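Entry:
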Amino acid sequence: RPTPYQAYLRIQIGCDKFCTYCVVPNTRGPEQGRPPEMIVDEARLLAEQGCLEITLLGQTVNSYSYTADGKTTDLAALLEMLHEVEGIKRIKFVTNYPKDMGRNLLETINNLDKVSPYLHVPLQHGSNEVLQRMKRGYTVEDYRDMMHRIWDIVPDAAISSDFIVGFCGETDSEFQTCIDSIREYRFKNSFIFKYSEREGTKAQDIMIDDVPYDVKQARNNELLEVQNEISETENIKFIGKPVAVLVEGRSKKSEQFEEAGKPIQMVGRTHCDRIVVFEGNDRQAGKILPVTIFETTPFTMFGTVVTEHVGPEVFSL
């Protein structure tokens, strides 16, 4: 558990996708969903322990499925069950597989207040040729259709992605498609990785890791720069607006602020997983507070806790 108020809850193990660069199917076996009743019971126990936010985990979490006694439970149905757990205020889930992001799941996300509209859906690459070499099982066009489906059904969605640069045979023009994709979709953020061989993967067996390390590093840096520019531009839109923040505790720099005689610096996350830092106190930890944003960077938003009126006095928790 990252904090007393947040917990990870695994709902699925293994993977059936067999991407050429990935060891998971060989090391963790086939995709298997845990029984939904077991997951709900675990969520109830976490709520009794003071947990407010659960993050459901799976290698391809939106592919979740469990069948027993002739009844199949998918992720949409599981979210509806978890939504009824008293005490749980927020539900997130990672990581998603593009081809399984269907309308029913998206409509469920949009209809359930507790379910976060933060969707981590790795594209991995902007080139169909590279996606084919990776054996991702979808095309650039499939991903574009999915993005438009998300925007149509969940207009407030915050979408993040993964990219692998320097995969076997990646050309300059193929790399350019990754830049084009980030600019087209304007992801909340992207996790960018330099390809490296993994023992026991198909890519290691049948492909040549032929992109020089310095080229991988340069492409990684360039893609990060493009993403950071977009993240900064998107975050600026929140300036002057209040956001609901689950306060996790003191920020990493709080001790430095205290030593300098400055107010305690607290940190938390919005419903869409954006990091927010503000001046506050330890009593705010574990509460969901309205914070008005006054400054942003590509990675962090800074704000002020909105004061509340109780009787004749004004106070901030």
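The longest helix spans residues 213-236.
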